[in-house]
Amino acid sequence: MEDLNLETKWLCTMRGAIPEPNMALENLMVFNVDDAWIESPRFNAKLVGPGGDWIRLQPNGNWKLDVRLLFHGDDGSAIHCFYNGVLRMEPHIAEAIEKGEEIDGNNMYFRATPYFETQSEKYGWLNDIVTVGRMRKFGGGNAVYDIFEVL
């Protein structure tokens, strides 16, 4: 039988500080991303803004993400990062978020599909890859994703 596995390789860790959301509509939360950075052996970057996360609250309580961030690489190159994703809002997740607690990524389904765009020759390879993000920690004003390159 044919091997139907999808291979990935860890690319980087993205960390961000997230304040309380603004409720724009009954089903739309807007988070201003105050601080974020990317750490990796292949590239490092720091948020220069603007940065935000527009979350649509689904009828079942799940979150649908629409995130857009602007980073500068360690050489000053602009790197645009954008992604969609989903958080399955299970009762224990909703309760922890309401209490402001940090949630371990192993205890939730929180996935994203980051893409990168840049004019930088040094980081141009980012334009040509597909990635998947898995939340490692979320809550208490912080988010930590591990991002994997799909091979």
In short:
This protein has 151 residues and is mainly beta. The chain has one helix spanning 91-99; strands spanning 8-17, 22-25, 28-32, 35-39, 45-57, 63-73, 78-87, 103-104, 110-112, 115-118, 131-139, 142-150.
What is the tally of beta strands? Answer: 12
Instruction: Name the CATH class.
Output: Mainly Beta
What is the number of domains?
A: 1
Rg calculated over all Cα atoms: 16 Å
If helices are DSSP runs of H or I spanning 4 or more residues, what is the number of helices?
Answer: 1
Per CATH, the architecture is Beta Barrel
Percentage of residues in DSSP E strands: over 45%
What sequence of helices (H) and strands (E) makes up the elements?
EEEEEEEHEEEEE
Poorly predicted segments: none
Portion in helices: under 10%
Task: Tell me about the largest β-sheet.
Answer: 8 strands, antiparallel, barrel
- Order of strands across the main sheet: 1-4-5-6-7-9-11-12
Write the layout of secondary structure elements.
Layout: E1 8-17, E2 22-25, E3 28-32, E4 35-39, E5 45-57, E6 63-73, E7 78-87, H1 91-99, E8 103-104, E9 110-112, E10 115-118, E11 131-139, E12 142-150
Antiparallel strand pairs: 1-4, 1-12, 2-3, 3-5, 4-5, 5-6, 6-7, 7-9, 7-10, 8-11, 9-11, 11-12
Q: What does this protein look like?
A:
With 151 residues, the protein is mainly beta. It has one domain: Porin (Beta Barrel). It is built from 1 helix and 12 strands, in the order βββββββαβββββ. An 8-stranded antiparallel beta barrel has the order 1-4-5-6-7-9-11-12. A hairpin with a 2-residue loop joins strand 2 and strand 3. The longest helix is centred in the middle third of the chain and has 9 residues, at 91-99.
